[in-house]
Write a structure and sequence with these properties.
Length: 211
């Protein structure tokens, strides 16, 4: 099984990356040593920005998007800014959704976040969970939030272990039922025919109005 970890931490060292590593290690204990890959979004920030303006991912970003789409399970961890996920975190999954809107359909996803205060822990349920539900992922029931005071305190290791067990169980149960191969992403869709009419993509209609 393939486990991919997406960390949106910006600093080095990063508490977000630390939480991601602990979740990955705990999941590996229960999932039978999966092939694990960690993706640091800070290394892809420039390519993510260029993708928005150019419409195509660079080599490193394309490789990361493919890894996420082909994973059997996903751990996603973001720092909380302004009571929600970071812009870099959201941008990565926006790019993924535009490239292949079904990339996360049916995929088990463990959501996690870090922040300076426990008051932002609801970001898991009012920001991350709706995002991945929209992307049709199967979100693990237990989300993990780590505030600064949680490190070294009681409770966090237990939440990590419980969430990891749930993700491993979903990976074992759902990996056999998902589509075996992703459909190739077409570089440019051909005009479709419907009811005797030619369906013109919205982008082409918009371009025609600008002339």
């Amino acid at each position: 099984m393939r486990l991919v970890v997406v960390s949106a931490g910006l600093s080095v060292p990063s508490s977000t990356r630390l939480l991601a590593d602990r979740l990955a290690a705990a999941t590996a204990e229960h999932a039978g040593a999966p092939d694990t890959r960690v993706i640091e979004l800070r290394d892809l920030a420039v390519e993510i920005a260029h993708n928005f303006t150019g419409g195509f991912p660079g080599p490193a970003l394309a490789d990361a998007l493919d890894a996420v789409a082909e994973a059997d399970g996903l751990i996603v961890v973001t720092p909380v800014f302004s009571a929600s996920f970071s812009g870099l975190f959201k941008s990565f999954f926006d790019v993924l959704g535009v490239r292949d809107e079904g990339a996360l359909a049916g995929k088990p996803v463990l959501i996690a976040a870090t922040g300076g205060t426990a008051r932002h822990s609801l970001a898991l349920d009012h920001a991350l969970r709706p995002l991945f539900a929209y992307l049709k992922a199967v979100v693990v029931p237990t989300g993990v939030y780590a505030a600064s005071e949680d490190w070294g305190a009681e409770g966090l290791p237990e939440r990590i272990a419980r969430a990891a067990r749930e993700l491993a169980a979903l990976m074992r149960g759902l990996s056999a039922g998902r589509r075996p191969e992703r459909a190739a992403v077409p570089e440019q869709a051909a005009p479709a025919q419907a009811g005797g009419f030619t369906v013109v993509p919205f982008e082409e209609q918009l371009a025609a109005l600008r002339k």
